[in-house]
Design a protein that fits this description.
Blueprint lengths: L25 E10 L10 E6 L4 E6 L5 E5 L6 E2 L5 E7 L15 E7 L3 E9 L2 E8 L2 E6 L1
Antiparallel strand pairs: 1-2, 1-6, 2-3, 3-4, 5-6, 7-8, 8-9, 9-10
Length: 144
């Protein structure tokens, strides 16, 4: 998982190497969602994995559609007036990570492309994997 200069995101650099998660237990998941009127949010804007060491890892997409992985605490939600609001809250059953709460990360792998850097991250637990990817600038999470 060594970053090569040609595979870094042109705007965000290499970001953190997510292999530091290996051996840590997933304790909590926090996510941000854009809420507009009574519409149901389409998916998370950001996801934070809170691990057994007390660390928070933020997974989100960049403006250039790269997948950003960084050590960062959850931010507070905010109001955007007529454009809705962003809420940040703990999640449980609403994410593919829910079935892995309390489990230890066994492995991580990532996919990179020269133009955008990281485009996917796969986190392996004993009971399965969660794939995080950018799709047309949106964060997508899926279980494997």
């Amino acid at each position: 998982m060594e970053s090569k200069k040609g595979n870094e995101c042109p705007l965000h650099g290499a970001s953190v190497r997510p292999d530091y998660l290996v051996g840590r237990r997933l304790e909590h998941v926090v996510a941000s969602s854009h809420l507009y009127d009574s519409e149901t949010p389409s998916g998370p804007l950001d996801v934070w994995l809170i691990d057994s060491e007390g660390g928070a890892t933020r997974i989100t997409t960049g403006s250039d559609w790269c997948l950003i992985v960084e050590a960062a605490d959850p931010y507070a939600g905010y109001d955007m007036a007529e454009s809705g609001r962003v809420e940040v809250a703990p999640v449980s059953g609403e994410t593919p990570f829910a079935e892995h709460l309390g489990e230890t990360v066994l492995a991580v792998s990532e996919e990179r492309v020269p133009a955008n850097g990281r485009i996917s991250l796969e986190i392996t637990f004993d009971s399965g994997r969660v794939r995080c990817e950018t799709c047309s600038g949106n964060l997508r999470l899926s279980s494997k």
